Amino acid sequence: MSWSRAALALWALFALAACGWQPLYGQVNNGSGGTAGGNAGPRLASVHIVPIANRVGQNLYNAQRDRLNPGGAPTEPEYDLVVQIVEHTQQMLIQQDQTASRVDLTLDATYALYQRGNRTPVFQGQSRATTTYDLLNNNVEYASVQSTDDAHRRGAQALADDIATQVAVFLAQPASG
Q1: CB-neighbour burial class of residue 136 (10 A; exposed 0-12, middle 13-18, buried 19+)
Q2: For the purposes of burial, counting CB atoms within 10 Å of the CB of 123, is it exposed (0-12), middle (13-18) or buried (19 or more)?
Q3: CATH second-level architecture of 48-172?
């Protein structure tokens, strides 16, 4: 029984390879003596993340470093990643006294990846994360502040995940030329 599962898994890998699928963080034998896959890990580690303004930007910067540079800042970076964030809030669940009790927070990020020394980006994109948080009455203002901060942190984490994945997919592509 386990042999048939292994054969099925091997067949699935060959089927995925036939349709152009490649692993993002590693390489596999392509069956013809070569390997396929981009192995984006080492290339991600060579990305310098430009610091981002404000507290949300700091959260995003730290989350990006955890994803792109888990071994620490690159000593000889090949790329610079520049990210800009715009924040939008929309009050939801309006009560009878016209105060909001729930807020939607949307973080929009635009980013560009530059090869070191070049002014033209080699890759650019956009990402969006939406989180919500509660606004509590005035007696527990600290709880509302914590709720707001947590929503910003969660939004920054979601942006970091999305941006890191998109940059990894780009860097995993074979070099052209």
Answers
A1: middle
A2: middle
A3: 2-Layer Sandwich (3.30)
Q: How would you write the pLDDT of the chain (177 residues) with one tens digit per residue?
A: 456 666 666 666 665 555 555 555 555 444 555 444 556 778 888 899 999 999 999 999 999 999 898 888 888 899 999 999 999 998 876 666 656 678 899 999 999 999 998 999 999 999 999 998 887 766 667 877 888 899 999 999 999 999 999 999 898 887 654
What phi and psi values does residue 61 have, to the nearest 5 degrees? -55, -50
Contact 91, 77 (CB under 8 A): no
Report if pTM > 0.85: no
- Reading the block at residue 91, the tokens are 């009050």
DSSP string, 91-159: EEEE-TTS-EEEEEEEEEEEEEEEETT-SSEEEEEEEEEEEEEEPPPGGGHHHHHHHHHHHHHHHHHHH
Residue spans per domain, the chain: 1-37, 48-172
